[in-house]
Amino acid sequence: MTPVIASDVDELVGTFVHPGEHLHLAATQARPNALTYALCRVFGRQGNFSISTTAVHSSAHALALSGCARRVIAGFVGDTFPSPRPNPLYERLAEGEPFEFEAWSLLSYVQRLLAGAMGVPYAVTGSLAGTDLAEGKGDQLWQVDDPIRLGRQVTLAQALRPDLTLVHGACADEAGNIVMFPPLGEGPWAAYAARRGVIASVERIVSSEELRELSDRVVIPGQRVLGLCEAPLGAHPQSLRAIGVSGVASYLDDYAFLEHIVQQCQDDSRGRDWYQEWVLDVGSHAGYVSKLRERRPTVPQRRPVGSSATRQERLIVLAARAVVEQVRSGGYDTLLAGIGSSHMAAWLAAELLQREGHEVKVAAELGAYGFSPQDGDVFLFSLRHAADSEALSGIVEILGGMVSANPRALGVLAAAEIDETGTINTSRTADGRWLTGSGGANDIASSADCVVIATASPRRFVQEVSYRTSPGNRVREVVSQFGRFQRQGEASPFRLTSWLPEDAQVVPDDPAAIDEAARAEIRERTSWRAAAADVLVEKPITDEELSLLRTFDPDGRYR
Length: 559
Hints:
With 559 residues, the protein is of the alpha/beta class. The protein has 16 helices and 27 strands.
């Protein structure tokens, strides 16, 4: 059946979407933002949709502001740029405001889509077990006896099958064959898992002759597509990669626009003003693009550069040192970092290792492998980094093949809370306020050795986390701004092994005095009961380390 060609995204959504359906917003590199806005315009609070998507951030805040989503299934809810952080719109997410929420890890979520695409009832996952992410999912997640490894269990997750999947592609022909370019994020699985099929926006509809030249880039075949339309800049403010498509240019993430969304959505009133201006008042996708062209670009303000490292820079450099030593001693060949200070530490570590002739590959969970970060662009998922990658793939290949199945992968993760067992919380505060969720952190911590990086405070280094987002049994080292905690094995307690005093001029000469000064730091800055004995004094942050870090981050996003 030939798909319907609609005039615009609002007509496409109005034709094929029905209130109360389970809709999937595909998380490839190019997100279906024009279609998301159209959902909000066409249906508003009458939508009553169940929405599944890997993450709710930036433009997807329109789902909350419009009221069209009754329930959301995702792995992350918050903001990702300029750095990962909670968004006030979701402070009461655990109470079902602004929508009911079902939390998963990134890989387990995609594994559920993969099972749905294959027509099987369950996915086997190595994630979630032993954490609060597994709680409350009695009809979707099961621990069953392993039929081969007696005495052990495996985790089964119910297949995820939306009614309709919404995607944005680089181009398609009139038969509905959709071209996408890697990194592919979740890939094609939601298109195959959808019970009714796919509706798609694309930058351009091309002829069948043009498409034949791109047949190796067709990710979603026309057989799955019910309808499509053209929507230039349909992924904005996210990026789109298009190589060799006539009449279609790649575009990068619009950082100024992303930051504007974050600023506006810091309170409900300004968030609604943004929604009114950029979703409703524009009236259509054409109106949105026209308004974009009238907008004056803004230049980010660079933070003042001091001669000494800030607390955040000390944290990142200490973590990079830890990663360097772990790679040297543990034989790791791949670094997979979570977004934030953790990925900055991984980038710095990889550069320092390369300078001494020890190469390690850096990977990003959405599908980039073996890339060198581009100076001045601190966004982990920037297409600038992807362009310089050795390989581009998707979530399954990275979190599955290059991490879960690779004993030489080292995870570098951040934590909102971390306890004395290494268990990580990035989901909820002690009083129930929503943070951000797992993303791929649970998947990494469930299958790979890890270094965790976190600014120390008594509310962050706790005796027991408020919510178990990621397991701690494979955490080898926890790094704070004042020192590094290590342990011999997963059953052993963490011990402060190195100390970086803020003032190098006051470092005691006597080892016993050093240990006591380090213990005082633990008592003041954490709620841990960790020991500190035979503590080594870290050398001061070097000019080389600081210069490299600031080359990556000239605007001071992580300063």
